[in-house]
Amino acid sequence: MLREGKIWLANNGEGMPLYLLPRMANRHGLVAGATGTGKTVTLKVMAESFSEMGVPVFMADVKGDIASIMVPGSESADMNERIQRFSLAENGFSYQGYPVTLWDIYGEKGIQLRTTISEMGPILLARILELNELQTDVLSIIFKIADDEGLLLIDTKDLKSMINYVQENSKEFAADYGRIAPATIGAIMRALVALEVAGGDRFFGEPALNISDFLCVGEGGKGMISILDSESLINSGRLYSTFLLWLLSELFETLPEVGDLDKPKLVFFFDEAHLLFKDTSKALLDKIEQVVKLVRSKGVGVYFCTQNPRDIPDGVLSQLGNKVQHGLHAYTPADQKAAKAAAEAFRVNPAFNTYDTILNLGTGEAVVSFLGEDGVPTICEKAYILPPKSRFGAITDAERDAAVKGSLTYSRYAVATDPDSAYEFLERRGIEAEKAKQEAAQAAADAKAKEAAEKQAAREQAAAEKAAAKEAEAERKRKARAAKSVASTVVGTVGREVGKTAGSTFGSFGKTVGGNLGASLGRGILSTLFKI
Question: What is the DSSP string of 77-91?
Answer without folding.
Answer: HHHHHHHHHTT-GGG
